[in-house]
Fold this protein.
Amino acid sequence: MSVTDFLKAKEQGSRLSMVTCYDYTFARLIAGTAIDAILVGDSAAMVVYGQPSTLSATVDLMRLHTEAVVRGAPASFVIADMPFLSFRKGPHAALEAAGVLMTAGARAVKLEGIDGHEDVVKRLVESGIPVMGHLGMQPQSVHSYGGFRVQGKDAGAAEDISRQADLLQSLGAFAVVLECIPAWLASKVTTNLKIPTIGIGAGNGCDGQVLVLQDLLGLNIDFKPKFARPFLDGANLIAAALTDFHQSVSDRTFPAPEESYL
Ligand code: KIV
């Protein structure tokens, strides 16, 4: 997969699948599947480190996770999130941050919003760094929303998201994530754009879908938004395996002779 394959997929009407990943072991498993792209999301701050938002993710943290994922999935199309404020301090600082992520092995970066950093997107694209946009609910703006809330519900807000999507496309973004917006709005944006849209909580009309890996695997026991379908009963399977291990240690059936060095 590459940037041009993303555009080709849109032209051909084939849907794109993307999952988040933060570590080497899961990256290896994803690399063995047909998943189209891996996102090293700044959701790492929440999913891996238990923070209440993505704001604590830093460029250095994203570099470490990007390196781990790329080691596990060297042939995959890996996109790294530009963390909070790393692209809001002007084109020079943004180029430095994106450079760290690209030299860590990412093939593209993703950044939230567009208003106020149009020059940054343009400069990154001109510098040969593919940029994926992210509109709708932008988790790095959680405090200005007053919580993680669906965006674009009224006509004005919907119009504004459409405008931002057009702007991202005109500045050279190769795709855009649409997060937590009404399905009708995501479909409209998708129809209007030549670049693919990747939805999360944005209905079935997008050109692709992304999920946080831990949600997809049913590992997140206390976060169950309606868009995050668990494709595995992961939490219960893991609990059962751990209980089995504990029981096998307690009743001395683990390790068996064939699991021991003689
Ligand atoms: O950081 C992340 O996981 C994301 C996805 C929700 C798209 O940005």
Q: What stands out?
A: The chain has two domains: 3-231, 233-262. Residues 20, 39, 41-43, 81, 134, 177, 179, 200, 210, 212 surround 3-methyl-2-oxobutanoic acid (CB under 6 Å). Residues 233-262 form one domain. The chain has a mean pLDDT of 97.
